[in-house]
Target: Thiol reductant ABC exporter subunit CydD
Amino acid sequence: MTTIADAAPGARTRNRWLKDAVGRRDGAAGLLLLDTLAAIGFAAGIAGGVTAVTEQGAVLPWALLMLGMGGLRALFASLASRRGAVEAGAVKRGQRLRAVAAMLHRKAGVPIDSGLLATQAVDAVEALDGYVARFLPARRAAAIAPMLVLGATACASWVSAVILAGTLLPFVAAMILAGGAAAEESRRQFVALHRLSARFADRVRTLPVVLAFRAETRETEAVGAAAQELAKRTMRVLRVAFLSSAALEFFAALSVALVAVYCGFALLGLLPVAVPETLTLGRGFFVLALAPEFYAPMRRLAAAYHDKQAAETAADTLMPTAASERAVSMAVAAPLILRDVAIQYPGSDAPAVSHLSLRIERGETVALLGPSGSGKTSVLHLLLGLAPLSAGTIEAGGAPLVSLAGQASWAGQHPLLIAGTIRENLLLADPQAKDLAIQRAVAAAGLGPMLATRPGGLDALLDARGSGLSGGERRRIALARALLSPAPFLLLDEPTAHLDAAAEAALIATIARAAPGRTTLIATHSPALAAIATRVVHLGTAI
Ligand SMILES: Nc1ncnc2c1ncn2[C@@H]1O[C@H](COP(=O)(O)OP(=O)(O)OP(=O)(O)O)[C@@H](O)[C@H]1O
Model:
C-alpha cells in the first residue's frame, strides 16, 4: 500500500530539495518584469495622450507609444507563460526519470509498490508543473515589479506612492495569516488525493482478487469514503482560498480608490490638507493608470499560491525516493564466485539461504535442485539484484558483483508480460532482433503450434495479465524472450513446471541446445532437467 507521510518533513529540508530539483530558472520571471516595464510605458502613453488632447499637442506619438507598449505586454505575457511551461516540462521529465529509476534501482528485496510509483511518477511530478511554470516566476516578479511601479509612481506623485505603499503593509500581514492556514489545509487535501488515487490504482490492479472474494461492495465503499474525505478537504481549501483572495481584492481596490480620491481632490484643489506637490492632469492620469499594476504581481502570485502548496506536498512524496540507494549495473563476466552467502529478506526473522558457497565457470550449466522453499529462486534473484545479500560475498570475473541485470536473460517463475502484442513482449529482450531471430526463438521455445492457431499469430494482443494464455504458454513466451536475448548469462526459474511429460521433454531439449555458449543457472524440481546440467547443486532443506 502507498506510503505517504501524514507528518511533513522540515520546511528547510523540503525547500532545499525543491530548490535542487528545480535549479535556477529565471527566464519566465524576467519576462514578467519586462511586462511590468511595458505597463509603465503604457501608462505613460495614456497620460501623454490625455495631456496632448487637453493642450492640443501631437497625440499620435503617444497613441503609438500606448499601442506599442500594449502589444509588448501581450507578447511578454505570452512568452512568459510559454517559457514557464518549457521550464516545467524539463523539471517534470527529470523528476519522472528519477522516480522510475529509483524504483527500478530500489534496495534488493524491497518490493515495487505500484500505487506509490504511479502517485510519484504521475501525480506528484505533475504537481511541480504549476510551481515551476507559474509560482516561481510570479514570486520572483512579485519581489521586484511592485517596486518598479512604486518608483515610477513616485516620479509622478510621491504622495500617491506613499498611499500605495501604505496599503501594502496590512495586505502583507493578511496574506501571511491566510497563507499559513491555506498551506496546512492544502497539504491535508493533497495527502487525501494521493490516498484516493493510490488506493484506486491498487484495487484496479487486483480487481480479479477483489471479484473472486466478493469484496467489491466493501472496496467500493472504501473508495467512496476516501473520495468523501477528499471532497471535505477540498472544500476547506476553497474556503481559505476565497478568504485570502477577498483580502487581496479588498486591498487592491482600496489602493486604487485612495489614489483616485487623492488625484481627483488634488486636481480640483479640494484637498483638506496642504501637500508639498503640484499634481498636473498628465501626472494624475499616469498615476491612476499605473495604480492597478501595483497589486497585479501580487494577484498573480496569489493565484499561483496553491501551486506552491501542491509542490511542497509533492516534494514530501518524492524526497524519500530521491534519497533511496541506487544500485549500479556494469558489465560482468564469469566465473561467478559465491562465498558463504546468506539471503535474508527485510522483515524476515530467518535467512532464506545461508552459508552458500559456489563457483560457476564461464559456459557452465548449473542446476539448483532442492525442495520448495529451499531458496532456489532467491539465489537467482540475488544474482539479479532483486534479493538482498545479507552475508558473504559474490564476485564476477574477479570484481564484486552488484547485479547481473543487463547481462542476463531471465525467465522467471511467474513470467511478466506487458500489455501489447506477443512480438512486443519478445522484443523486450532485444529491441533490435530481426524477424528470423524471433522465429528461431519462438520455434526453440515450442511456441509454434500456439501461434499457428491464434488469430494474429505474433501480433496477437495480450493484456498485462496474459489473459487467454495457459501457464505453460506464458512460460514458453518467457523462455523465447530469454533465448532471444544475446546476454552471456541465462537464468531460468522452473522453466518446465506444470508441463506434461512430452512438453517437458521438448522444452528440456530446447534448453539443452540454448545453454551452451552461455553461463546458465536453472532452478528446478525436475531431475530430468537437472540431468542436462554440467553440475547439480543441492540447496538445503525446506523451511
Ligand atoms: N520477497 C520475499 N520476502 C520475504 N520472504 C521471501 C521472499 N521471497 C522468498 N521468500 C522466502 O524465502 C524462502 C525461499 O523462497 P524461494 O522462493 O527462494 O524458494 P524456492 O526454493 O525457489 O521455492 P519453490 O521451489 O517453491 O519455488 C521461502 O521461505 C520464502 O517464503
Remarks:
- The longest helix spans residues 216-268.
- The two ends are 28 Å apart (CA to CA).
